[in-house]
Structure formats: structure tokens, C-alpha cells
Write a structure and sequence with these properties.
alpha/beta, globular, 8-stranded parallel β-sheet, 8 strands, 263 residues, 9 helices
Length: 263
């Protein structure tokens, strides 16, 4: 089971590039599935705001019963976890409770594939952070969790062993080959294989977020990933391939190309 999608579906700069120029925002998700043919999407807006249950119920109504969602963890769960004065990890249990309550409709209807927790570059491989990841998984209980690391120091066998032992998924990333960032490493630690393609914009650290993901993969670059995706799919129950190079609809273009290559 391989599902390819994009990290989000509602972007103003997709109008005229991916969507008809006059499409209404409320019609984008239906177009994304029924016209473009995608079967999954990654909800990234949840990083900034924990939505209401009605928001997810509305998304489910606009899609078929087989359409799936992955949901990105809120920043209070991944980025804003330390006290600014003491530097110690804070008790953020209430943030988890609000987040889990919000995604309940997706979980109840079997439409939630996983929670994606993307940690910042400043999240290092320290003992207290390892301990925090255990707490993170415990709070989600039976909800599948996939972690995306940004800092190179998580790129080691110890980290993968830790994830396997704690039933936490590993996010395989392709991003600029810059010092300090995670390298591409096609590995799995649970029954979910999760690829995330950010593009290779070498101006990563200096560019504003709006253009950090401005990159279109070439046909040859995409082809280089096909064997790894298929290989992961032989052992994983679900293999998710997400394109996050969303600037001006490039993620959708590359995702559609990848779907054809995987056929």
C-alpha cells in the first residue's frame, strides 16, 4: 500500500498552477481528490493552530471514505516545549489533550494514518529529549506516531533502535545536503514507511519560509527514489510519500509524476 500526496492542499499560489484560477477555497480538497486523484494529504496547518473537531468532520465530508489524512503535531508539542528561563522541558499535557480531542473524528472513522511530529534543528539528541519522546508516544497511546528530525545528530543507529523499541515511526527526508541537516536515509522503525520530500533549495537556512520550499524535482531525481519506496513498501503496512515543496504547486506536480513512476 503506497499513497502519495502533498503536505497541504490549500495554497493561494496553486490557483492557476494546479487549481482553476476561480476555484473557491472550500472546493480545493474535493478537487485535490476527485480531479487530481490523490488519496491522502498531510494537514500542516495544525502546527500553527489546533482546529476544532468540526474542521476535520468537514474535511471528511468532502472526501471519500478511503481518503486518508496525516496530521502534523502542534508547535506546543514539538517546538515550544522548554521554559525560556530555565531551559527545562515544560509540562504540556494540556496541549496533547486538546490536540487528541481535535483529531478524534479522523481516528474514529479510521481516516487517520499517523501523527507527524517534526522537531526543530535545535532539538538535539540528549537524554532529556529521548525521555520526552517516550512521553510523547505514551500520551498518543494507540495513535501511530512518526518523527521527523532536522538535526544531523539524530542520524545514528542508537536513534533508530530507540524508535523501534518504542514503536515510533521514522520519517525519511530528502532536503538540501547542507551541514547539520538530516541526510536521506531510507529506513523504517514501525509498519509505516514515511517519505517527506522538502526539495533541495540550498538557501535553506537564510530563505524565508515562503520560498524555502521553492524547488521542483527533476525526472531523474524522482526516479532515484522509486526503488527505495518500493523496497520500503515490501515490509511496511503503509508507505506514505509526501511532497512538501509546495511553492507554486510544485509539490503537486512532483507527486503526480511520482504516482506515474510507481505504477
Amino acid at each position: 500500500m503506497i499513497k502519495v500526496g502533498t503536505s497541504g492542499f490549500s495554497f493561494p499560489d496553486w490557483l492557476g498552477n494546479i487549481y482553476p484560477p476561480d476555484i473557491k477555497k472550500g472546493d480545493m480538497l474535493e478537487y485535490y481528490e476527485k480531479i487530481l486523484g490523490f488519496e491522502i494529504t498531510e494537514i500542516n496547518s495544525t502546527y500553527y493552530t489546533i482546529p476544532s473537531q468540526k474542521s476535520f468532520e468537514g474535511m471528511m465530508r468532502k472526501t471519500s471514505k478511503d481518503f486518508e489524512f496525516t496530521v502534523k503535531a502542534h508547535k506546543s508539542m514539538t517546538h515550544e516545549i522548554r521554559d525560556k528561563e530555565t531551559g527545562k522541558i515544560m509540562d504540556n499535557k494540556d496541549a496533547f489533550e486538546r490536540f487528541i480531542y481535535a483529531i478524534e473524528p479522523l481516528k474514529r472513522e479510521g481516516r487517520l494514518t499517523a501523527i507527524l511530529a517534526q522537531f526543530p534543528y535545535s532539538f538535539h539528541a540528549t537524554k532529556d529529549n529521548y525521555d520526552y519522546l517516550k512521553i510523547f508516544k505514551e500520551r498518543l497511546k494507540d495513535i501511530p506516531l512518526v518523527l521527523e528530525f532536522r538535526n544531523y545528530y539524530w542520524h545514528n543507529e542508537r536513534s533508530l533502535k530507540f524508535l523501534k523499541e518504542n514503536h515510533i515511526g521514522y520519517c525519511i527526508v530528502d532536503e538540501p545536503k547542507l551541514k547539520g541537516l538530516m541526510p536521506y536515509n531510507p529506513a523504517t522503525t514501525t509498519d509505516i514507511g514515511y517519505f517527506r520530500f522538502h526539495g533541495r533549495n540550498t538557501n535553506w537556512f537564510d530563505a524565508p519560509t515562503s520560498v524555502r520550499y521553492d524547488y521542483l524535482y527533476t525526472q531523474d531525481e524522482l526516479k532515484s527514489f522509486v526503488s527505495d519506496i518500493k523496497n520500503i513498501a515490501t515490509s511496511a503496512k503503509n508507505t506514505i510519500v509526501m511532497f512538501n515543496n509546495c511553492h507554486a504547486g510544485k509539490a503537486a506536480r512532483n507527486a503526480l509524476e511520482m504516482i506515474e513512476m510507481l505504477k
